[in-house]
């Protein structure tokens, strides 16, 4: 029910209520009229938002996968200066520009871990095929750097334990870390470069960055091998070095075999040379860092 009270003009109050006494009270008549009159309704308009989504649609690299290195890894350094390049270099001058190397560091943790797993299963021989479109230098750089410090520190600790067991004085050899850096950085840089020139000569060219990637990941097995070499048993150390060297050599040789077979009858000699050179690295590592004399 609704009743009104008050006098005159537009003033006064209306009393609202119902038979069940659920709502009761007094409301100004002007307010009731304002609410009931559609002409008093104000329309509010909102402008379209200018916010942009993230990541942007033009993102490159791992976000959208739109920026990848060329299939032949050394093509980015062999184009003429007039040709546009994804890395931002021009001809061989691109070697001196950081932008030329950016595509080869465009990997994430899952990519690196997957490639490390491949290196620990040497008989599959599928590493080169899987990394042909996107070889990286990020993994090889950190693998070599980690191996340098691990091998030097574990080798130093092994000599320390041997001297303490014999109750003799022990002196730290600072040359271990510098020698390790020269060995591993030099090996993973010079050997693939030499192999690249040899394959070019035998008309079986391979991407230079792809070779660096392959050799870099082949050294990962020496990291756990160095940690196990802390055990002060000479026979055990030789076994560990031999197993690690065999796994690393097999990994490199099998991944290059199918590619090198196109070079003619001498492909077998090249593969054997690659295998023996990798074994030699394991022997040098054992003799210099993990042969303890007291």
From TrEMBL:
Bias class Basic and acidic residues marks the residues at 69-82
Could you state one GO cellular component term attached to this entry? Golgi membrane
Question: Keywords in UniProt for this one?
Answer: Membrane, Transmembrane, Transmembrane helix
Subcellular localization: Golgi apparatus membrane; Membrane
Q: Which spans does this entry mark as compositional bias, Polar residues? A: 46-61
Q: Which Pfam families match?
A: Yip1
The UniProt family comment states: Belongs to the YIP1 family.
For this protein, the parts annotated as crossing the membrane are 137-162, 182-199, 211-232, 238-256, 268-289
Q: Which organism is the protein's source?
A: Stephania japonica
Checking PANTHER family in the record gives:
PROTEIN YIPF
Q: Which residues form the Yip1 domain?
A: 126-284
Transmembrane helix recorded as keyword: yes
Disordered, as annotated region: 46-86
The Gene Ontology terms for molecular function here are: small GTPase binding
Tell me which Gene Ontology terms the entry assigns under biological process: vesicle-mediated transport
Main location as per UniProt: Golgi
Q: Can you say what this protein is called?
A: Protein YIP
Q: How does it sit in the membrane?
A: Multi-pass membrane protein
């Amino acid at each position: 029910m609704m009743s009104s009270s008050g006098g005159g003009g537009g003033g006064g109050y209306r009393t609202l209520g119902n038979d069940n006494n659920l709502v009761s009270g007094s409301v100004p008549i002007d307010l009731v009229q304002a609410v009931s009159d559609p002409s008093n309704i104000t329309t509010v308009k909102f402008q379209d938002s200018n916010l942009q989504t993230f990541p942007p649609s033009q993102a490159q690299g791992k976000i959208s996968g739109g920026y990848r290195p060329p299939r032949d890894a050394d093509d980015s350094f062999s184009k003429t200066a007039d040709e546009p390049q994804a890395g931002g270099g021009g001809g061989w001058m691109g070697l001196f520009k950081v932008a030329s190397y950016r595509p080869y560091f465009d990997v994430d943790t899952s990519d690196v871990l997957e490639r490390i797993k491949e290196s620990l299963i040497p008989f599959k021989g599928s590493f080169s095929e899987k990394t042909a479109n996107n070889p990286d230098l990020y993994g090889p750089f950190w693998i070599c750097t980690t191996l340098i410090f691990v091998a030097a520190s574990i080798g130093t600790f092994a000599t320390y334990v041997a001297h303490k067991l014999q109750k003799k004085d022990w002196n730290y050899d600072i040359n271990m870390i510098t020698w390790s850096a020269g060995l591993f950085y030099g090996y993973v840089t010079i050997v693939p470069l030499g192999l690249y020139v040899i394959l070019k000569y035998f008309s079986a060219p391979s991407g230079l960055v792809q070779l660096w990637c392959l050799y870099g990941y082949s050294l990962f097995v020496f990291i756990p091998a160095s940690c196990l070499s802390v055990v002060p048993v000479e026979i055990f150390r030789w076994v560990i070095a031999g197993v690690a060297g065999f796994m690393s050599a097999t990994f490199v040789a099998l991944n290059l075999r199918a590619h090198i077979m196109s070079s003619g009858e001498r492909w077998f000699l090249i593969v054997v040379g690659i295998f023996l050179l990798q074994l030699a690295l394991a022997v040098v590592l054992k003799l210099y860092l993990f042969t303890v004399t007291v």
